[in-house]
Amino acid sequence: MPKRTIGVLVMSYGTPESMDGIEEYYTHIRRGHAPTPEQLAELTGRYDAVVGGVFPLRENTNRQVAGLQAVLDRMAPERYVCYQGLKHARPYIEDGVESMAADGIKEAIGIVLAPHYSVMSVGSYVKRAREKAEALGIAMRFVESYHLHPKLIEALTDRVSHGLEGLNAVKPVKVLFSAHSLPEKIREMNDPYEQQLLETSAAVAAGAGAADWQFTWQSAGRTREPWLGPDILDTLQEVKGNGYEGVLVAPVGFVSDHLEVLYDLDIEAKSAAKELGMVLERIEMLNTDILYMETLAESVVSEDDWQHE
């Protein structure tokens, strides 16, 4: 009996394809409400500060999807075909599912380029993909988190160890693990997001021998409701007040170079640290690290119950 082809929907937040696409992207994030001229100018300025009008950020996701496909091909030739689905940019999540259906895919697995589960993040991707898959007659399973996968921890541990070596001349140094903040209300929902992030951070700190660490948040949305804190800019002031000369930021909630890393950390947080008289360095992002690609591939394969039928 020939092996069935399984679709793999690789989902991520999305980023515009060019500077010209920023307004459409921002409008989608705002659920159809166009940003004010001031809001658009601010976001455009952040992208311009990072990419200088050229737009390589989208390629990060494309390369990750291609990298995952390559590892899956090695593990199980001709069994899996990857499709891309983005939350706020084309191809949207629904577009990815439609592409599967057009290719005759009947069984699929969804995975998000984010290791930690929250109903407000990964859960929203899963909801959209599941609804579209059901409408098109595709049976779809989902990898909801992989925050303690041994190869993910290994890749992050290597980066923290390397980062600390680079700060060897600075003492004392605090390791700050970070992730994208979410509204505080997730705590009332017993959402696992915060706990999973702490578990990843503790595992990586232990592996790197980094006893002096803490967790902080970044990139909170600008809404009236309270978001998880403290924000990294506030944490930097606290750390400086406690006598630290340097920080190594490990944004374990993110898996590639994009705006929240290249602007919020590399420009904004680094500038704040400099004003405080501290050195701030950041670990390299996972991007297409083979250990991360294998983390994704092994998570997909372990979700593939069809192979055991």
TrEMBL record:
It is an enzyme of class 4 (lyase). Its EC number is 4.99.1.9. Fe-coproporphyrin III binds at Y13, R30, R46, Y47, Y125. InterPro entries: Ferrochelatase, Ferrochelatase_AS, Ferrochelatase_C, Ferrochelatase_N. GO terms for molecular function: lyase activity. CDD domains: Ferrochelatase_C (cd00419), Ferrochelatase_N (cd03411). Pathway: Porphyrin-containing compound metabolism; protoheme biosynthesis. Fe(2+) binds at H180, E260. Pfam families: Ferrochelatase (PF00762). It catalyses: Fe-coproporphyrin III + 2 H(+) = coproporphyrin III + Fe(2+). Keywords: Cytoplasm, Heme biosynthesis, Iron, Lyase, Metal-binding, Porphyrin biosynthesis. It is found in: Cytoplasm. PROSITE patterns: FERROCHELATASE. Belongs to the ferrochelatase family. Involved in coproporphyrin-dependent heme b biosynthesis. Catalyzes the insertion of ferrous iron into coproporphyrin III to form Fe-coproporphyrin III. This is Coproporphyrin III ferrochelatase. It comes from Paenibacillus plantiphilus. The gene is hemH1.
